[in-house]
Amino acid sequence: MGSLGRTGYMFLNSFLVLMLSAAVTIPSSFRERVTLFKQRSAEFYSGRVAYLSQVLMDLPLSVLEAVLLSSISYFWVDMNQGANHFFFFMGTLIALECVGQALGRLLCALLRKQVSANAMSSVLILLCGTVAGFMPQYTSITWVLRWLSWITPVSYAFEAMMINEFYGRTLDPLTLGDGDGTRLLSIQGSAWLNNFSLPRVQWASYEGIKIFDIFMILLFALIYDLIGMYYIEHTREWYYNQIRRPQATVKRSFEMETKGRDNEEEKDVEKSAANELTEFPQTLSVKGLSYSVRVKAERKGLMTRMKSLIMRCSGKNVEKVSKESTLTLLNGVEAQFRRGRMCCLMGTSGAGKTTLMDVIAGYKTGGKITGTIMIDNMLKDEATWQKISGYAEQNDILNPYLTVTETLRFTASCRLGHDVDKEERVQQILELMDLSDYANFVIGREHEGEGLEKHVRKRVTIAVQLVIRPRVLFLDEPTTGLGNNAAALVIRAVRRSTDAMGIITLATIHQPSKFIWETFDDALLLSKGGRVAYMGESQNVVNYFSSLTGEEAPERCNPADYALGALSSMSPDEAKTAFGQSDGHAKLEEEIASATKLNSGGKSLAPYIDLHRPNNPIQEVALLTKRQLVVQWRNPSYCFMRLTMSVVVSVYMGLLFFGDKTKLSGAVSSIGAIFFLVFILVIPMQAAVVPLIEDRAVLYRETVSGTYSRLSYGVGQLFADIPFHMLNTVLMWACFYFLVGFQTSWGNMGYFLLQLFLANFVITSLGQLFALVTPNEESANGLAGLSVMLSVILMGFLITANSMPSGWVWAYWANLFRFMLQGFCTNELVGRVYQINLDLGLNSTMNDSAGLFENATSFVGFAPGVDGTTRFARQSANLLNLASESGGGINQFIEQNSLISLVRCLTDNSCLEDPLASNFIQCTVFKLIGTPPCKDEFDAATDNIDIGAIAQCFLPGNETSSSENATDIVPEGFSFDTFVASKESSQRDTLLCLLRAVLPPGTQDAINSIIETIKSLSGIVMFIVDIVRNGLQIPGEIILFFFGWALFEDFEFVAHWKWWYCMGSVAIFWAAIELFKIIAVQKIVWTKR
Known about the structure:
Elements: H1 3-41, H2 47-73, H3 83-110, H4 114-130, H5 153-166, E1 174-178, E2 181-185, H6 189-196, H7 206-239, H8 263-267, H9 269-275, E3 283-296, H10 302-313, E4 324-338, E5 342-347, H11 353-361, E6 368-375, E7 378-379, H12 382-388, E8 389-392, H13 404-415, H14 422-432, H15 454-466, E9 472-476, H16 484-501, E10 504-508, H17 514-519, E11 522-527, E12 531-537, H18 541-549, H19 559-568, H20 572-580, H21 583-595, H22 617-633, H23 639-656, H24 664-680, H25 682-687, H26 689-704, H27 710-740, H28 746-773, H29 777-793, H30 809-813, H31 816-829, E13 833-835, H32 843-846, H33 852-855, E14 858-862, H34 871-886, H35 896-908, H36 916-924, H37 935-941, H38 947-951, H39 976-981, H40 984-996, H41 1003-1018, E15 1022-1026, E16 1033-1035, H42 1036-1042, E17 1047-1049, E18 1052-1054, H43 1058-1083
Parallel strand pairs: 5-10, 5-11, 8-9, 9-10
Antiparallel strand pairs: 1-2, 1-14, 3-4, 3-6, 6-7, 11-12, 13-16, 14-15, 17-18
Helix pairs in contact: 1-2, 1-3, 1-4, 1-5, 1-29, 2-3, 2-7, 3-4, 3-5, 3-7, 4-23, 5-6, 5-7, 9-16, 13-14, 15-16, 18-19, 22-27, 23-24, 23-27, 24-31, 26-28, 27-28, 27-43, 28-29, 28-31, 28-43, 31-42, 31-43, 34-40, 34-41, 35-37, 35-41, 36-40
């Protein structure tokens, strides 16, 4: 790998290690912050002590990551092989890992939301990377921003790595050509360092600067952590003091006319709900319901296996354990739940309360289920069941950016038919659940201490299920996490809804208060293993268990506590047997038999239920798009942050790369600006991860309940992103394009806008895909960072395609970032001409070669990875110099194949080595002994040239002779001795004259034909520049050719791939990612169920 590639490798390590370590630290820090603040409020420990413990916990991970990264990649890219150089490089990465993790902890302490921290982290690290000294170099940074190089850890890390790698090292030589031939110029590593103008190398020795840089990196980590330790306590002060306010100024997202209601109408809500009741179903019956799962046996440890072996050897029996065993969670459950009644499902720990409710509700998809579930006189049908049942989960899974009313309206719009007055239904549910006072309050993010109180959230969760007016309602621990008063508010609202709507309500609950217990009509108690210990009216529980124990229940006792206490004193089998022999069980069997008995006509009493969704796919997509637009707009941490950061960073990048674009340094600056522009797009990619992961739980709940299809969700999210991508694209273009100084033609600007829009879209979609296929934020951010790092390394800029290991070339062709970079660079460089500056910063190390550049006629630079010292490379450079000096040839009809054959023969026989003239003539025209080895090839190449024109090359001063009298190439009286005795200038004139006979007319055409010939022979990519007194100019296409982004066709460089190839490839990537997103939405579920 060349010096540029190694330099890019060190820069990427400095930049991306910092970014990845911060990206992985932020999610875990925010998650642990919730626990920290709660325990700190209880005075468990000091926040600063907890912060310090997190620092110590993260330190081993920093060391491990740095060791793995450096060990795997360091020697692969041909870095300095010394052990001291390797361990210093590893130590620098460890220090950078510490800084990145410290930055992540600091942002967690300073900022309120994780999305803001992710975006701010990307921006800060991007700012650090751009002023690190790689591109642009330190002296090229405008004075307004140059001071940033002194306060960024990446700058110190890059400087230390550069000194560690190049100081004292000799680099690959350059091939230079002049009138006397070619020379190789060996360059010392210190010259490469001087070319980058590192800011602190003038202070002390290189070794001293390396130690100083490491000290500064560690100092940054210490400062970040000290600031974070200070602010973590201040952050806690506002965490629990968030303002809960209505969204009075926000336009409602689901517009429906809100009908005013007076007091009399409010009193008639329950009556109105009762009028809409149907007689179906009257009962929900469960008979012989069992549920079991297969459990793999745990692997035995070494000691256990040794004990078993000893026992077998001693002749003792050892119980054999099968690889799989069956665990029974429900055992022959029989129960009945009736219309308009609330049933409390209780039991000891591990009794299977939630399991029973999930099995009845159809939420258990694994394991083996036996028994029957009857709705009145019909077997449970899954399609019908989804329409008549509602399930309120224990966790309040709600969209935090909608108001209470908007949440209910969205559910009504998706699940209710067009003949239903949705607004009236929503208002009815608000009043039944006592939510009218909170109707316009935004729900908020509970774990960040904002939004509605816990008991209000719980009522909203239940209200979402009541909107469809379910016949059966399941509540999974609706009072968990609530105090007595808050729990009473929830249960009272459920009681009111059950009575008004005639619902069969089943709720699991832990140790309810006496008031809550008395709210329930029936009770179902389970003992361990899913055995029924009691099923009947709740008011009879005390009498039943007191008869079993033979003891009177204490006065004013809580029936729930008394029943659970009595149940815990019995074995599961005893409890099941006792209830099986009781009168209550016999009565239960009679009621189940009566309820499930078919009527005399044998027909079902169930009314007609439309099993189709009320909305077609287009309507679902429209509703989801509308909601997603509102959610993004109301999430300033996501919407405003990514727009603001893009604008700020675009302006910053414009100022950083502002300058003259007419010189070759301007072309390098343009490529650097585009290179970092791609990094700006990583900001919305990381910002997109957190909201989507948070929204996944809402997606799972709503799709399971039949609110909409997963496909509609994926398409709706796609459409909702379009306006924000368009706005972000226009803002970035306006702030970046003109400041940098790109071409201002309509075609160039139009392409840039369209490509930037696609790039915005595809990179954000890539982040969303990572969020869908990974279980949490750390995994998504880590995968995103790794993909970005590999894409940037293999995008063809730091390492050209010719220099990549053969096993990694596929990654170049399948690289999304490569097509974006190539498209942007082609759009900018094609059509531009750049002035070359030959001041390469090498004069101080050239010694006796000083001034060689000024006297050179050409400069031949081989592609990275190509050895310029080989025989073929030296002869190719000589031939290119001769073609440049010839001024063009006279052979208008030269065939490329003939030229290729001639050059192959010349290079194989070392005919283009010094002395050039003598060797060339002996190979092509005449030789003292034998036949010239390349005579036939030379004759074939000059077949179209009159022999007299060639013969005159051997006359003194190349005098013109009559072609009519010429019969041989060599004139009469001319000998090799005569040629050797001639002046050196005369010899070169003869050589150039002979060369003109095989070259096409025109200097540029002659050079182009030789370039194409050499390329055909060896695949070596070359770059040649004619040096003229009034300056050097090079078209942008040649620079693209060097990177492999242009072709040499018809003797000119062309780059016509930006539309159909680059933009088309990005569009294909976008379509593929969107397709994978939709597949991931439909197939991948990260949930416990």
